[in-house]
Structures are given as structure tokens and as C-alpha cells.
Predict the structure.
Amino acid sequence: MSSNEFKGVMVFSEDFEILLELLGKGRELADKLQTELSAVLIGHNIEDERGKELIKCGADKVYVVDNPLLEQFNVEPYTDVLSKLASDYKPEIILIGATKRGKELAPRLATRLNTGCMTECSKLDIDEEGRLVVNRLVYGGSSIAIEVSRVKPQIATVPPHVFEKPAPSDRTGEVVKVEVDVKEPKTKVVERKKKEIVGVRLEEAPIIIAGGRGLRSKEDFKLLEELAKVLGGQVGCTRPIAADYGWFTNWIGISGVKIKPKLYIAVGISGAIQHTAGIMDSKIIVAINKDEEAPIFKAADYGIVGDLYKVVPALTEAFKKLLK
Ligand SMILES: Cc1cc2nc3c(=O)[nH]c(=O)nc-3n(C[C@H](O)[C@H](O)[C@H](O)COP(=O)(O)OP(=O)(O)OC[C@H]3O[C@@H](n4cnc5c(N)ncnc54)[C@H](O)[C@@H]3O)c2cc1C
């Protein structure tokens, strides 16, 4: 197929909120290419309102594929549907939300379409040749790779919350219902269980106080919990605290959760690149460390050099008085 046959930008995520986030970036890319932006809705008994909302948030077209076999996400039929849409409508760019499910889906789709897949892209733009150019963190977050795809469609996955959801406006567009012959998947989901989450998910928490190996025991995290309670925040940690000591189930960083709170306080954390790669989207970073040479101070907006066992209780007391 000649590369001129491809036209338009298509976005998909099985998570509606992330689909909206992709629309904002998709609109920008489509405008630069002076082409059409389409969004894909897959599921069963899909409400008409969803299509309308996607148009208000930037889509020119919404392809709706509604089928009982698509009620729950299953990577096999979802890949069938997306590859059928991509083959019929030939978008030059396909953006997929890099959720757990999107990460399963995107490389399968790329294989079906005989193209490449650029994963976990943090920056996307169009170059002077009209190609999609992406930035991706590589080597544990210590470097940025700038990539283009030699073939079309150019598929890229985008992690959640990299882009803001666009504000709805009075736009018009078209909702197209597409019939796709959906086959029963070869795999069957036997049971679904909701993951128990205490409090707000770290990815969504506006204030995070995280502890590292500077804390000597699990009990000492109570100091951070007290500060978090006063500020209305959540407690997080570095990888060794969770993966080596088992004091928490997840951690912040390149191999864990990437966060973008308004305020991030790093307590007894050295600031290894694998950790800081996951906190760089925080609005304000405060570091507390007894070693003034600790690399975390390079990433921080404010630094307190001192013993966390003295600084944290003092901060908690000060905020208690201030916020009374
Ligand atoms: C492939 C790979 C992926 C990784 N992914 C991640 C990741 O996603 N997230 C992550 O966090 N790590 C990750 N790591 C691990 C990372 O390289 C670091 O080892 C880790 O972040 C260090 O954790 P830390 O800061 O808690 O501990 P340390 O590096 O041991 O730092 C402890 C800090 O506490 C300070 N301190 C000690 N006592 C006190 C005190 N009383 N008061 C104040 N300060 C004190 C010290 O000065 C020191 O700076 C990864 C590593 C690899 C190889």
C-alpha cells in the first residue's frame, strides 16, 4: 500500500477518560496535518451521549462498534475490530492509551497491520516531512529516544495523564455505526475481581509524601502518614521499600507508578534517575535529606537538608497550626 493512501488521525482507549485525553493531542496532530480526527468506541449498549461527548472534545468522526461480544475488553476481538477499522479507513496515525489493556492491544494491532509500534510516548509532534515524531524515555529513564516510524500507519501508545482532557465546545461531527463480524475469542475470562485500593490512587493524588530508605522501619512511615493527614495527601515510597522490604505494594518511578501531583515531598530518598523519572510531572517537588549532595535536590524546587526524624514532625506541627 502506498503511504499516500493513509489519511487522518485515529484514537482509541477502552478507558473513556483516557480516550478524551488522547483526543486533545490527536486534534493538535490532525490540525497540523490538516486532516480528520476520528475516535473509536468499542463495547455493548454504548450510550449515544458518549459519541456526542467525543465530538465536543475534538473528534470529527466517531466510529462506534457495538456488539454483545465486545461488552468486556478482550484483546482478541478488540484487535480484530481495530484492525478492520484501520484497514477500511486507513488512518496515517493511530494513538492508543497505554493502559494495561492498551499495551496488550497496540503491538498486536501493529503486527496485523504490518507496521511498527512506538510505546509509552511522552511527547508527540509532526515533523517537516509530515511524519509523527515521538519522545520516549529509555535506559531506565536516563535518556530520551526520539523516534519516527518508517511505515504507516504510525502507531503510538500514550500513558494515562500525559495530556489534559480538552474542554468541550460546540463542535459538530459525525457518529458512524460500523458493523464488524466479531468472532468468539479463544480465551475466556473466568472471573473478574476489583483490586482493593485504600484511599486515592497515587496517580490521581494531588499531594504525595513519599519515603525512601532513609526511613529505618515500616512503623516510621507513620511520621509521613501524620503529615499526609494534615495536608490531605497520600503516602508513597521508592522501589526498595516496596519491592525489597515489602512494606508497600507499589512504588513511584519508571518501573512503578508515574505521578503528577500538585505537591510531592520526597523524604529520605536519594533521587536515583529511576525514581525521579516518575515524579518529574509534579508541580512542586520538596526534598528532605540529610545529605546535601543527594541528587534529589537537583530535581527539587525546595530542599531541606536535615534529619527527617526531626524535620517531618516539625513540618507536621507547623502545618497543623497554619491550617487550623
Ligand atoms: C531497572 C531498574 C528500575 C528501577 N525502578 C525504580 C523505580 O521505579 N522507582 C524507584 O524508586 N527506584 C527504582 N529503582 C531503584 C533505584 O535505582 C534506587 O535504588 C532507589 O530509588 C533508591 O531508593 P531510596 O532513595 O529509597 O534509597 P537510597 O538510595 O538508599 O537513599 C536513601 C536516602 O536517604 C537519606 N537519608 C538517610 N537517613 C536519613 C535521615 N535520617 N534523614 C534524612 N535523609 C536520610 C540518604 O542520605 C539517602 O539519600 C530501579 C532500579 C533499576 C535497576
